[in-house]
Design a protein that fits this description.
Structural class: alpha/beta
CATH class of one domain: Alpha Beta
Strand order of the largest sheet: 2-1-3-6-4-5
Distance between the termini: 24 Å
Number of helices: 7
Length: 213
């Protein structure tokens, strides 16, 4: 599939890139997408939540009242979870939320996400560009020229363009990443995907050669 390359002003450069069918034209696998996105979101959780149980709080272990004859339930410790400032029953503990997803599934998920973007005409290939100085105004002008300023977008760079990255930091609905940082979640989460011309071959190579999965 041949796709035209536009410049940062949105004009056709006359060049085209080949988006191979085995990466950008696969039959989308929704379950693979679900597993990969689920893993990404799970890995964002720190898992450092913790409450103290009755064995971990300070307090006397003396039996606080006699066993019978009080008219109330028996109680053997002030640390009882039923009492105020007692230990918590079945509270959260420190744990890892990491999940395992096979490399082939992750690769299929990424191909599915890219194929969906191309199928829905939510993908644009732009020639490589950079700014002399970091300016949000300059980046906004590029988005206006491409007609995607009102959409949540992801720009994938193939080479280092620090000023482009810095120019986009202040924009809530825009994210700039390198081709090595591309993930299924980032693709799915964006309404429009913009690929730098140099990033296309790198993405195809990574997904074909079983890298970065």
């Amino acid at each position: 599939m041949r796709v035209s390359v536009v410049d940062q002003k949105g004009k056709d450069t006359g060049r085209q890139v080949d988006l191979t069918k085995d990466v950008f034209g696969v039959d989308p696998n929704e379950h693979a997408l679900y597993l990969d996105v689920k893993q990404y979101l799970a890995h964002q959780r720190q898992g450092t939540h913790k409450t103290k149980e009755r064995a971990e709080i300070k307090g006397s272990t003396r039996k606080i009242k006699k066993q019978k004859g009080t008219g109330t339930a028996r109680a053997g410790s002030i640390k009882n979870p039923l009492f105020r400032s007692g230990g918590r029953t079945f509270g959260p503990r420190v744990r890892s939320y990491n999940q395992k997803v096979n490399k082939n599934v992750k690769r299929l998920a990424r191909k599915s996400a890219l194929s969906l973007k191309l199928k829905n005409k939510s993908l644009t290939v732009v020639e490589d560009f950079d700014f002399d100085t970091p300016k949000t105004k300059s980046f906004t002008a590029v988005l206006n020229s491409l007609g995607v300023s009102d959409k949540k977008l992801l720009l994938v760079l193939g080479s280092s363009a620090k000023n482009v990255y810095l120019s986009a930091r202040n924009l809530k609905g825009a994210e700039v990443v390198n081709d090595t940082e591309l993930s299924t979640y980032k693709i799915v989460n964006a309404q429009h995907l913009i690929l730098a011309e140099s990033a296309v071959n790198s993405i195809i190579s990574n997904l074909k050669n079983n890298k970065n999965s």
